[in-house]
Amino acid sequence: MGGMNNKQRVSIKIETAEMSACGISDRGRERFENEDAILLEESGFFMLLADGMGGHERGAEASATVIEIIHEYLRPELLLDEIANITETEGIPTDLICLSSLVEEAIRKANSVLYERNQKGGYRRFMGTTVAGLVPAKDDYMLWFHVGDSRVYRCRNSVLKRLTVDHSAHMEWERSGRNGIEPSKHIITRAVGPKRIAIVDIGWEKRLKEDLYLMCSDGLTDMLSDEKILQVMTMGDDVNEVAAELVDAANDAGGRDNISVVVCRV
């Protein structure tokens, strides 16, 4: 299991019977500190990535806090408690309903903690963070969730699919037909912390053997096109090499922001 500190690069690896995963968080070439955070739960129960904002180390505090709180909620024993108290719902596996409920509770709690700190601190710039998560669930499902513009992708049979839709002004502009002036790509419309309420998007699908999942902060996607990401993801079987190559490629392209990735092969 791992969190973050401000070394140039932090790398975490896990291997289970069902999957292998590698997470790397790198400061990049232009930033003095890393406000991203990653965590890979050592038994493979979940993986998390957060990209903090707020300046003066509050971004790092925000990302570390949200990961810590989600970790408290995403525990196998809490999942079993949820399952014991739920009525079967036709069409949706019970595990997925319960995991979704735990994720929503965790995001509510994390948002409440950070929002309160912002109110009490009276900061000129409120701290906040994006967050993305991957949870390999029972019966070969993969569940993912996100708030903000940190993304989740899946590579299957050499085809890359983005599973999340950025919560950003730019994405809203794209989806509404690109009318009016193009907004900056860095204006996010949802985050954990700055507002009283944070809404999380949750999705899931059946995972197939050899699927490769990627979570990343915008430090990767601002530097690399989806075509380049696909090229790197299909270069070999080793998740450690793929993760390192993605981060190196983003740094080679300029490394203007912190770069965090989690690569998981099932």
How is this fold's topology laid out?
Layout: E1 9-15, E2 20-26, E3 36-40, E4 47-53, H1 58-73, H2 76-84, H3 94-121, E5 128-137, E6 141-147, E7 151-156, E8 159-162, H4 169-175, E9 201-206, E10 212-216, H5 218-221, H6 226-233, H7 239-252, E11 259-265
Antiparallel strand pairs: 1-2, 2-11, 3-4, 4-5, 5-6, 6-9, 7-8, 7-10, 10-11
Helix pairs in contact: 1-3, 2-3
Describe the structure.
The chain has 266 residues and is α+β, with helices and mostly antiparallel strands. The chain has one domain: 4-Layer Sandwich (Phosphatase 2c, domain 1), CATH 3.60.40.10. It is built from seven helices and eleven strands. Strands 1-2-11-10-7-8 form a six-stranded antiparallel β-sheet. A five-stranded antiparallel β-sheet has the order 3-4-5-6-9. A hairpin with a 2-residue loop joins strand 7 and strand 8 (159-162). Helix 1 (58-73) runs antiparallel to helix 3 (94-121) and helix 2 crosses helix 3 (94-121). The longest helix is centred in the middle third of the chain and has 28 residues, at 94-121. The radius of gyration is 18 Å and the shape is globular.
